[in-house]
Amino acid sequence: MAVLSTAVLSCTKSHTGTAAPKTFVIVPGAWSGPYAWDSVQAILEKSGNKVFVVQLPGHGSDSTAPQNLTLDVYRDKVVSIIDSIGGQVILVGHSLGGAIISEVAEEVPSRIEKLVYVAGFVPLTGQSVLALASTDTASILGANLVPSADNLTLGVVSDQIINSFIQDGTEDEQSLVLANYRVEPAIPLTNAVTLTAAHYGSVAKVYIKTLMDHAITPTLQNRMLAATPGFSAIYQLNTSHSPFLVKPDSVALLLTNIAH
User: In whole angstroms, what is the distance from residue 93 CA to residue 22 CA?
Assistant: First the structure.
């Protein structure tokens, strides 16, 4: 197993380089949507970067029925956006987005400059997000999931949404999460990924850990990193599962430095 290199970037340090702008494609996680990345997107774009935040089918304002969704549908949505852009991208995945960007890297490895996992799932080939999450016995989220009667969606116990995702946020940030909450399509969470060393394994990978995470705990994050060789750097933020909302400046700075 390759030794993981660890780097902790001080988020008080300014990025003063004059490197060329980059193109970021950001994949939000479960129970979330593009809204959560508005502040990070604005900061990155102010520096001249191009930023595309993916509207996953069945999330945000998209009304695709949950029975029509799979992990491959998500993958194909992201690939179509990358195809429309041209050139290489920095592909960022949060939470469930980690599994999605892994599948995208398997599909179009040459189009991805780097994969960046933000508290993201890092499945091994043959693993699903649900299988990985079920091993996270300390997760508050995992203990408070509510399947629908038809098992096509998963909800979160209402009084545990904040505690699961953004316990360290301001009242406004927490209200934003509640206002945008919707149940999660279940089928993609059960779909196993298929990854190869030749494709997925050839793409540079970086991880941003969230040290106060109640949804994907640091314990699971560490286990996933130990099981997957090839991460060139591991950064960490002292936040909940939603660093892009509670510390958007820090997330934008990390992404800027990682991209260069």
Answer: 16
